[in-house]
Design a protein that fits this description.
With 111 residues, this protein is an all-alpha fold. The chain has four helices and no strands.
């Protein structure tokens, strides 16, 4: 594997970080969907509690659920767009993201 400079490392790091944020938002949307469909679990409530806390919603405050859904969907879209831009930057560096992702998956399976 060839040596990587700091900019390349940061692009890869940001790519994976955005992926984590996208997955977190998708998990929140799925929890909301299950609750709207009448299914409730402590896990889903925990996901929503973390999301509401991160937004600064206090104990007796309220948030319109549909606005939260729209906000999460907008964030996912922005994060996916940013990931596409990072892929383009990686191409300019000569990085192959498929290879980087494969190596990351292999490394995580070993650890």
């Amino acid at each position: 594997m060839k040596k990587m400079d700091f900019k390349q490392y940061k692009v890869i790091e940001q790519f994976f970080h955005l992926g984590e944020l996208i997955q977190q938002n998708k998990n929140t949307l799925e929890a909301i969907k299950r609750i709207k469909n009448g299914l409730i679990s402590v896990h889903d409530l925990n996901i929503l509690q973390k999301e509401l806390s991160s937004l600064g919603v206090e104990f007796y405050s309220f948030l319109i659920l549909n606005e939260l859904v729209v906000s999460l969907e907008d964030e996912i879209s922005k994060y996916e767009e940013a990931r596409s831009e990072l892929k383009e930057m990686a191409k300019n560096f000569g990085l192959d993201f498929k290879k980087v992702i494969y190596e990351n998956v292999m490394l995580e399976s070993v650890v």
